[in-house]
Amino acid sequence: MSAGLRARAAGVAVALGYRAGPKLASALRKRWVRIRNPQATIRFGPGCHLGPGFSLHMPYGGTFLAGAGTEFRRGFRAEFAGADAVVRIGEGCYLTYDVIVACSTSIDIGDRVGIGQASFVVDGNHRYRDRTKTFLEQGYDYRPLRIESDAQLHSKVTVMANIGERAIIGANAVVTRPVPPFTVAAGVPAKVIDYYGPAGREPEGWEGASRASSDSPR
User: To which CATH superfamily is domain 3-211 assigned?
Assistant: First the structure.
């Protein structure tokens, strides 16, 4: 084989290895999280990619389901408080770096949802009002949580309430109350600052209802 053919063959081998490497690493991570959590139900759809640092903490069991084509880029972690805890993530989602999901009841994430770097999704919050007990003694209030399809959460968002379809959450926001569909929410606590959906579906009390986009599909 000539030097030119050898160089070409080496280049093809490197290209194939580059493409196969992430897929192989993802497959190994899927196997590893199942081995680490034999008492849990864990399923990944076709083409679901697990990046470096993906981990599931399920010492008491629970259910984790991720849909086809969903991408966990780096540092994802989900923690389950019990055997009844369920996390469902739909198809075509992308979760970037260091996203944490903490579940005690159920957390449902629709299709094509984007969750930005260092975001935190949790279905409960700590009680604090009982002055006869220490903070750690007061326990938590839990409730199922849902993020609807096509919602987009930017970096460092904390989610403790439902988020509607196609809602956009600004960076560093803290979602403590439900965010309606087709809205932009930002701040601490997060508040609706814009609506871009169809006329007639504006959030109740929305001050900008009179200027809701006239060109939105009806």
Answer: Hexapeptide repeat proteins (2.160.10.10)
- What region does 41 belong to: left with phi over 0, alpha with psi -120 to 50, or beta? beta
> What are the structural domain ranges in the chain?
3-211
- Return d(Cα 78, Cα 72) in angstroms, integer: 11
C-alpha closest to that of 89 among 33, 38, 141, 50? 50
Q: How far apart are CA 216 and CA 198, in angstroms?
A: 5
d(CA 118, CA 18): 28
pLDDT tens column, 10-67: 444 444 344 557 889 999 999 999 999 999 999 999 999 999 999 999 999 999 999 9
Q: How far is CA 147 from CA 75, 111, 127, 165, 178, in A?
A: 20, 9, 23, 8, 10
Q: Residue type at 71?
A: E
